């Protein structure tokens, strides 16, 4: 039996480095920003209509860039409203970056932040333990549902926190995208990671359909330049491979056959296209909007 590969999230510093390289080489944040200032703006205008105070929650908010973009759009749609903003994020490093970002961002006097340094499951248990009855006008879970044991129970819990006209926004990698293909084929060989079996929007849609839960679906096109992954020893390429596989030092710890197979798949037409000599990985994501 092959030795278990080490998990990327167990090395916090390397995880943060690999995540930053991912952001630097992908158009994901730009795609999410375009969605927030496009289709989501209309939706945000409809929530909490007539209210002077709004309750919002960001789950797995990372370093806060998407949250502040949502806050900016909320302020445009509800200029006179105060915002009670609950942040749930397990990484102390990410939470500190978020706090620093807030401190250096003007025009947030109307927002009161509550910081929860904990995983989603811990937050759920904490809410139940306190019999928390605070209802939310808007909750978003952006690229964070991969790390929960039971995605169905998690979605139903956060859905239960919505106000009558509230909305729950979930963003995940596309069920038809390259991430889904990579993980479907190689996840068992990557070993135990923090990413669960159901990792794509295709899995989530099937789950919601089976329960008869209606939703609105949006496509967010995104690409990632993975050219550096094919230059052996390239530091950024190695970090990107770590992020794609969620394995620490993937090139060093994976068998030669596993590394070769992953690189072949990543470079092939099922995952990527060559554009002007660059290997562009299909990083498409989907957004689902769920009502209470």
UniProtKB/TrEMBL annotation:
It comes from the Eukaryota. GO terms for biological process: methylation. InterPro entries: HHMT-like, SAM-dependent_MTases_sf. GO terms for molecular function: N-methyltransferase activity. Substrate binds at residues 28, 283. Keywords: Methyltransferase, S-adenosyl-L-methionine, Transferase. Monomer. This is Histamine N-methyltransferase.
